[in-house]
Structure formats: C-alpha cells, structure tokens
C-alpha cells in the first residue's frame, strides 16, 4: 500500500513536471493545447497549471500560459531581458527625443510578441502599447520583424492561424529579412503606422526596435526619412548589448 501511494505521488509529480516542461519549451500555449499534447484531461491540466501559477513557475495572460520570470531567470532568460531593459532604456529615450515619435522595444514570447519597454509622446498616448502587453506576431511592424526571424515551426504555426493569406504573409517576411525593415499602416492600432528593424547579437535577434506614430504624420516619406536614424540606434544598441550578452 505504501508503495502504491508513493507510485501515485510519483505519477502526479511526473505529470506536473511534464506540464511545466511543455510550457517552458513552447514559450506560450493554452491549457487545451497542453492537454492534447500530453494526453491529459483538460480539468487535470488546469489543476496542474493552477499549482504551477501558485508557485510562480508559469504566468497566465488571457487564457495563454507562459514561463514566469522566475523560471526564465533559472535559464538565463530573465538576465538577458534585464540587460535589454537596462541597456535599451537610454536608447528609447534618446530615439523618442530625437524623432518626436513613440519608440518601442519588443521581444518574442512563443507565438506572441511582448512590449518590453516604450517611450511615447503625450500625443501618441491613444496608440501606445502597455508595458508587457502581448501582441500578435503577424500584425504590426515590430511584431513581424520578430516573426521573420523566428524558428520555422513558429512561423508555420503563426501563418496557419493568421487572417492574412499565407502567400502575402510569407512574402512580407521574406522582404523584411532582405531589406532589414518592416513598415506597417494601421495593422494593429487604427491610425497608427510604424517602422521597425531587428537588433541581433552574434546572429540571434534579441528584440525589435520600432518607431511609431499617428498615420497623418507617419506616411511613406516619413518612414523613409527615419530609416537612417532607426538603423543608427539599432547599431548602437547592438554594440552595447554585445558587450554584456
């Protein structure tokens, strides 16, 4: 009887670790996707997720589950993010001051992007993101930059679920990789346009750096004129990150 009880406890522990491992590896998932992948009842999956949330191993946003900052810190992810926040802070402030536009630093979280930090002029308050807001990877310049440089499996999953046609979205990603820029017009926020480029260290894209503003003062000509400024800021941010990453 003791062995049977121990066996049941071990089974529960193993299942919990499998749920945790699945969340950590996917970066972002739902309870149903976890249940389907692990062959667990949905109610059981929710119970494990509840415990993992209580111990701050996973976080939940709008029904999606992500590794927590506590879990990320064990793998070094939190340290990298802290460096992005610390090093990127002055670049965003300087970029917004020199251009008069909103500047955004975003990272990929599984099949979403996340606004890590931004500076927005008062006149852009209605189009600004919230810090740590999760954003779709297939809409908006900064998000599509991250998608263009994501692993093939992530690209395939996002394309399959996108409202955009597969051909249009894949062509857009190829253009971003070849040109080094993404430009969007009212894709995520109505009346908001944005120009973005990747920031890579040793071949890995760590984040996207974006300038955004109301469409009436951020048309094609403005985006073209801002490219050199954005490129210079991204290069400086890359150099600073290379010293500490």
From TrEMBL:
SUPFAM superfamilies: GAF domain-like, Winged helix' DNA-binding domain. The keyword Transcription regulation applies. InterPro entries: GAF-like_dom_sf (IPR029016), HTH_MetabolicPath_Reg (IPR050707), Tscrpt_reg_IclR_C (IPR014757), Tscrpt_reg_IclR_N (IPR005471), WH-like_DNA-bd_sf (IPR036388), WH_DNA-bd_sf (IPR036390). One of its GO terms (molecular function) is DNA-binding transcription factor activity. This is DNA-binding transcriptional regulator, IclR family. Keywords: DNA-binding, Transcription, Transcription regulation. It comes from the Bacteria. Residues 70-243 form the IclR-ED domain. Coiled coil: none annotated. Gene3D superfamilies: 3.30.450.40, Winged helix-like DNA-binding domain superfamily/Winged helix DNA-binding domain (1.10.10.10). PANTHER family: HELIX-TURN-HELIX TRANSCRIPTIONAL REGULATOR, ICLR FAMILY (PTHR30136), HTH-TYPE TRANSCRIPTIONAL REPRESSOR ALLR (PTHR30136:SF24). GO terms for biological process: negative regulation of DNA-templated transcription. Residues 10-69 form the HTH iclR-type domain. The keyword Cell wall biogenesis/degradation does not apply.
